[in-house]
Amino acid sequence: MKSSRSFSLDGLARILWAVALLTLPVTSFRYFPAGDATYVRPLAFFPLALLLPILLIQLLRGKTTFPRAGALTPLIAFLFAALAASLLGVLFAPLALRGQDAFGRVVRAWATIFIGLAFFIAAIWMNRDENDLRFTIQWMLAGLALDVLWSGLQGATFYLGVLPKSLVTQWQRAFSMRELIKTNRINGMAYEPSWLAGQISTIYLPWLFASLLTRVRMTRFKWLEPTLLVCAVILLLATFSRGGLLTVGATVVLTLLLAGRAQIRSAWIWFVSGFQRRGAWLWRAGLIVLSVAVMAGALLFLGQKGYIARLWNSNAASVEDFIIQNSAGARAAYIWGALGAYQDHPLTGVGLGASGFYIYNNLPDWALTFVPEIARQLSPDAALYPNPKNLYVRLLAETGLIGFFLFIAFLFSVLGDIVAALNRKSSTWQYLGAASLFTWIALVFYNMTQDSLAIPNLWINFGILAGMSAFAIQSNKVTEEKA
């Protein structure tokens, strides 16, 4: 009887983990218990809130062990530094801004950290071996497939008129805080197109690209991962997200250079050898023409949006003009204002979540004159609480140099696990290492345009790697002790 109960709890844990992975695409769940100004509302947190107590019960009953992931050490140190900075930030007692005080912002910020940590810890705990990894990736890709189907319906509505846009908007609003984008940009199940692009680049593309690179398949259908890879790229283009496109482009190049040199060499040998055989050169020439045609078509498609074309058609006379012309003036101004808070308290920061109290007082002069969004937010009628919109700047402003470098230490601890995975000869570990490296590089760029600690993008893939690495180390130790 005891064994039956244990099995049922383990089975329930896997079901809840599968549901969490399946619902990852929903980033702004309408019925999440948060204020209207909170946009990061991951639906996947609900099954995680049920999963973690079950894992804790199993731990107390001795049916599981807590993984001693190396990345947890710098992360815990960062949390203590952030806690100290938060307590100091409350003592600084900045003036309330639009009905919000420092204590309330600190509480909200810590709530977001707990949400993010839930994804990280659950991913560590639920990924012990290759079978767990296969289970995780399969359900993660199932979530992507649902997102592709929903996004396809949006695209068919926008460009083919198969359904009334008002009807699809009602369906979207049934689970999301955001209606369909009026400019006909695809946002899938996410809050906005840039969020969808972030999901693709930091959660899904890493596994699909690693599958292409290492020829490892986590599903039973060999055609599924290549098909989803093509769909993900098309979906990325349909978001018209400049940050997402630049992130993926840079990440693909760097991942190939760092982890795919052998594949590049093999591909080059195959390509060149074709010109030495009669008739084979036609296939290579056709491949060149097809590649050029695809690139040209993608650029023409993206060039339909004026704000993307301005990246290469700008006549700006200065860096500030270029930033403003490309609709990034407000974002740059918020970053500048948050850096002002860091300059006032460089070691400890102003407290987690409290940087917004200092941003408006430190805005640059050009933002007050030439950026309409800033002028609207400075109006007495505005209700926005500003945020830095850059994770690195936020950490500097809110946790100071101490918290910032501890978080960087966490990232480099994860990078150490990535290097260890890539150095293993197993194809599965090569696959895991390549996917994690893609995630790591993508997040380096992605964190320049977002500052949320609750968003799963930052935690889920790192947790999978940390869990696999931790349990592999424990297994090796057990084997050595028995020997």
Short description:
By secondary structure, the protein is mostly helical. 70% of the residues lie in helices and 0% in strands. Helix 7 runs antiparallel to helix 19 and helix 18 runs antiparallel to helix 19.
Task: Describe this protein's structure.
The protein has 483 residues and is mainly α. The protein has one domain (2-315, 388-482). The protein is built from 20 helices and no strands. The longest helix has 33 residues, at 391-423. 42% of the residues are buried.
How much is the radius of gyration in Å? Answer: 24 Å
Strand content: under 5%
Strand segment tally:
0
- Total number of distinct structural domains: 1
Secondary structure class reads mainly alpha
Q: Percent range for helical residues?
A: 55-70%
| Number of distinct helices | 20
Task: Provide keyphrases for this structure.
20 helices; disordered N terminus; mainly alpha; single chain; 483 residues
What topology emerges from the helices and strands here?
Elements: H1 2-22, H2 45-60, H3 72-92, H4 102-125, H5 130-159, H6 165-173, H7 193-214, H8 224-239, H9 242-259, H10 261-273, H11 280-302, H12 306-313, H13 319-325, H14 329-344, H15 356-359, H16 365-370, H17 372-377, H18 391-423, H19 427-446, H20 460-482
Helix pairs in contact: 1-2, 1-5, 2-4, 3-18, 4-20, 5-8, 7-8, 7-9, 7-19, 9-10, 9-19, 14-18, 18-19, 18-20
